[in-house]
Amino acid sequence: MRTALTTTLKRWTLILLGTGAVLLVPWTVVLALTLPGSTEVRHWSLAWIGLDVLMATGCAATALLGLRADPRARLTAAATATTAVLDAWFDVTTSRSGGDLVMALGCAVVETALAGACVAMALSEPRKPDEQPNSAAHKAVAPTKPSPAP
């Protein structure tokens, strides 16, 4: 049951998100017209390593939460999918032609597959705790019902 305050906050959040999307269009045009074609970057390797560490952390968090049937796994899956797509984008768009580009495209295929799996998980229905996979431990202990009082 939603309260009026929750509904109002959600509506304003959606309005602000839509406004942000509209305002990003002219900003993107400004960037396209003013950014240099190339630049020297400090800490280049740190940026790439950080992105891969973020993706690995997202995979691990999603796996751990998913194995516990924690519904938050859907959130980490969505974030991990986004990170994988960003990593693929930057791999391809910043690589040199030739062997570097071929390797970047190969990595992009794997990262896109990871993103697809994460999106499928993020959009899936959450499992209920009583829908845990059957295991030997669960089968060994049968649930008991309380006996009716005499």
Structure description:
The chain has five helices and no strands. It has helices at 4-34, 44-67, 73-94, 99-123, 136-140. With 150 residues, it is mainly alpha-helical. The longest helix is centred in the N-terminal third of the chain and has 31 residues, at 4-34. 71% of the residues lie in helices and 0% in strands.
Key structural traits:
mainly alpha, 5 helices, flat
Low-confidence stretches: 135-143
Order of helices and strands: HHHHH
Summing up helix and strand content along with how strands pair, one would put the structural category as mainly alpha
Q: Which sheet architecture does the biggest sheet show?
A: none
Number of strands: 0
Distance between the termini: 40 Å
What's the alpha carbon Rg, rounded to whole Å? 23 Å
Query: Shape from CA axes?
Result: flat
Q: Percent of residues in helical segments?
A: over 70%
Tally of alpha and pi helices: 5
Summarize the structure.
The protein has 150 residues and is mostly helical. 71% of the residues lie in helices and 0% in strands. Helix 3 packs antiparallel against helix 4.
Task: Give the arrangement of secondary structure elements.
Layout: H1 4-34, H2 44-67, H3 73-94, H4 99-123, H5 136-140
Helix pairs in contact: 2-3, 3-4
